[in-house]
């Protein structure tokens, strides 16, 4: 356990060096956030009653999305992991008295977390000072906030466990590109990264909600902005837990199977 | 200390990977310290150290010492033992000046010294070295060799070494195993083998014209640019009659007769076994 913690720490400290990348990221996220909000504002102006949530709730959703982007961006992978499989450096990782799945899980999680730590605060602070309805509003009560934190933790673990299955596939295919591109485009749509899921037609929304991707970012953000409440929060959290279990199990099976027939590339 | 040799692609590195629990073989058995490596990987790797000369286990972007600290926690080495092991390795491999440098800035020789140190921090019972001296300059090679020797003697670590560098073999190992085509071809004491094979003498002839005849007891190793090198089986043909025969086929400008070096011994072993 301690090994994983140290691993997380060294990865984390290592990541904090890249401050310029973080500034650039913050700027991008502001631009993106404003752009999305302005676009939705145009729609809301014509007929606000046609939308599933108020404009304040939507802007809150968007700012949360921008602040915590690094936790949930489906297109973010650790290239070193892909490389170590395709050039054979995985040999060294297998010489360690640790589980490969656990090690890479921690590694992927930590590289997401350090990015968020560097980026979320400035965005959240500025968004909090923006005049309503353009800024981020506070959650309804403390309980909602705690549920949001819980759900966000589950969601980011789920995101990493989904990534792990993509890493595992590289053991079989050697090049991750094909499956990555397919995965990323689907995940972006299904997770509500492009359009919040409630804005989709009702039936589509309900279908997407059952998919694992909705349990990554959509659920925590909708808990925070109050779109989900009471019974539906409990249901959404259970679904998150179920998907997390399913993906960890699936990923571990894939890893176990892959390691039985692992080929160390490059002699 | 065992030297494990064979031509490129013979399966040396593969064997190392099986013995270190990385690969699952299709069939066969392998028991190390009472365990089958691939069935009990995690417990097995606690007791071994591995260096792959062509790869790096150190973290590319962080100072070497951080990689060491990480290994300390991965192997759950306790503070006191780590300190002792660390100090010993640092002073023996003279790493003081490079330990705080990020791995990416190290030269190959510096890095390899750190790699060897990294694989010994947890004081393994067995050390697998897969071409540890590949690409190193003479000084670094000797430093690594001396160190391996010391570890073997002082810590009583079993060392299994694959290499193409015959000086490594000569300097380090007592026992060598030769493999090729998936079989163990030879397994024996280096000195005995050397004696057996230094029944061979190496005859080098520089000539201005002529073609060699083929005769028993003389194996051609090289014949280019008017330079002819052959191994002579002294049990079959005496040196003087070989020279006589050679001078008949060549117009000799220079000739030398030497005992086979380990390198040549290996070449003639490869030849003998047709690998």
Radius of gyration of chain B, whole Å: 23 Å
Percentage of helical residues of chain B?
A: 25-40%
Query: Any guess at the CATH architecture of the largest domain in chain B?
Result: 3-Layer(aba) Sandwich
In percent terms, what proportion of residues of chain A is strand?
under 5%
Please state the overall shape of chain A, judged from the principal axes of the Cα atoms: globular
Overall SS class of chain B = alpha/beta
Q: What is the overall pLDDT average of chain A?
A: 89
What is the terminal separation of chain B in angstroms? 25 Å
Major sheet details of chain A: none
Shape label of chain B = elongated
Helix content of chain A: over 70%
Distance between the termini of chain A: 32 Å
* Strand order, sheet with most strands of chain B: 2-3-4-1-5-6
Explain the overall architecture.
The complex is a heterodimer of chains A (267) and B (275). Chain A has twelve helices and no strands. Chain A is mostly helical and 267 residues long. Chain A has one domain. In chain A, helix 8 (142-173) runs parallel beside helix 12 (231-260). The longest helix of chain A is centred in the middle third of the chain and has 32 residues, at 142-173. Chain B is an alpha/beta fold. Chain B has helices at residues 12-19, 41-45, 64-74, 79-92, 108-120, 138-154, 166-172, 190-197, 239-249, 262-272, and strands at 2-5, 48-52, 126-130, 158-162, 175-180, 183-189, 200-210, 218-224, 227-233, 250-259. In chain B, helix 5 runs parallel beside helix 6 (138-154). The longest helix of chain B is centred in the middle third of the chain and has 17 residues, at 138-154. Chain B starts with a strand and ends with a helix. Chains A and B meet through helix 1 of A and helix 2, strand 2 and helix 3 of B.
């Amino acid at each position: 356990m301690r090994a994983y913690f140290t691993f997380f720490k060294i990865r984390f400290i290592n990541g904090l060096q890249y401050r310029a990348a973080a500034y650039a990221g913050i700027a991008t996220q502001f631009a993106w956030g404003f752009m999305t909000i302005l676009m939705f504002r145009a729609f809301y102006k014509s007929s606000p009653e046609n939308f599933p949530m108020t404009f304040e709730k939507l802007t809150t959703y968007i700012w949360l999305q921008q602040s915590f982007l690094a936790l949930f961006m489906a297109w973010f992978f650790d290239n070193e992991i892909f490389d170590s499989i395709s050039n054979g450096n995985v040999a060294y990782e297998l010489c360690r008295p640790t589980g490969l799945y656990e090690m890479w899980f921690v590694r992927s999680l930590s590289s997401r977390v350090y990015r968020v730590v560097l980026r979320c605060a400035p965005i959240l602070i500025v968004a909090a000072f923006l005049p309503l309805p353009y800024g981020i509003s506070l959650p309804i009560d403390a309980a909602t906030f705690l549920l949001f934190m819980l759900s966000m933790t589950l969601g980011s673990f789920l995101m990493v466990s989904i990534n792990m299955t993509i890493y595992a596939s590289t053991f079989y295919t050697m090049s991750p590109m094909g499956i990555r591109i397919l995965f990323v485009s689907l995940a972006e749509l299904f997770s509500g990264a492009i359009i919040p899921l409630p804005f989709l037609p009702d039936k589509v929304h309900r279908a997407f909600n059952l998919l694992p991707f909705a349990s990554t970012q959509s659920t925590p953000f909708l808990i925070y902005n109050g779109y989900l409440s009471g019974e539906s929060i409990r249901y959404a959290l259970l679904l998150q837990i179920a998907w997390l279990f399913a993906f960890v199990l699936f990923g571990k099976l894939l890893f176990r199977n892959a390691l039985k027939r692992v080929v160390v590339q490059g002699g | 200390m065992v030297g494990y040799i064979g031509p490129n692609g013979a399966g040396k590195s593969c064997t190392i990977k099986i013995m270190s629990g990385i690969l699952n073989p299709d069939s066969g058995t392998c028991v190390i310290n009472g365990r089958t490596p691939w069935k009990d990987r995690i417990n097995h790797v606690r007791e071994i150290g591995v260096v792959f000369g062509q790869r790096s286990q150190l973290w590319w972007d962080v100072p070497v010492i951080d990689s060491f600290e990480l290994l300390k926690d991965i192997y759950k080495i306790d503070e006191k033992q780590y300190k002792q092991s660390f100090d010993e390795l640092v002073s023996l491999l003279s790493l003081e000046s490079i330990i705080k440098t990020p791995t990416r800035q190290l030269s190959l020789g510096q890095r390899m010294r750190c790699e060897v140190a990294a694989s010994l921090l947890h004081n393994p019972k067995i050390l697998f070295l897969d071409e540890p001296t590949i690409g190193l300059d003479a000084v670094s090679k000797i430093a690594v060799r001396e160190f391996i020797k010391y570890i073997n003697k002082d810590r009583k670590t079993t060392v299994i070494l694959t290499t193409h560098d015959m000086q490594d073999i000569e300097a380090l190992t007592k026992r060598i195993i030769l493999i090729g085509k998936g079989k163990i071809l030879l397994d024996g004491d280096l000195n005995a083998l050397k004696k057996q094979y230094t029944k061979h003498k190496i005859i080098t002839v520089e000539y201005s014209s002529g073609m060699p005849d083929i005769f028993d007891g003389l194996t051609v190793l090289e014949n280019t640019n008017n330079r002819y090198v052959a191994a002579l089986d002294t049990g079959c043909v005496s040196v003087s009659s070989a020279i006589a025969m050679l001078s008949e086929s060549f117009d000799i400008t220079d000739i030398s007769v030497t005992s086979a070096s380990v390198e040549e011994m290996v070449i003639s072993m490869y030849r003998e076994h047709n690998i």
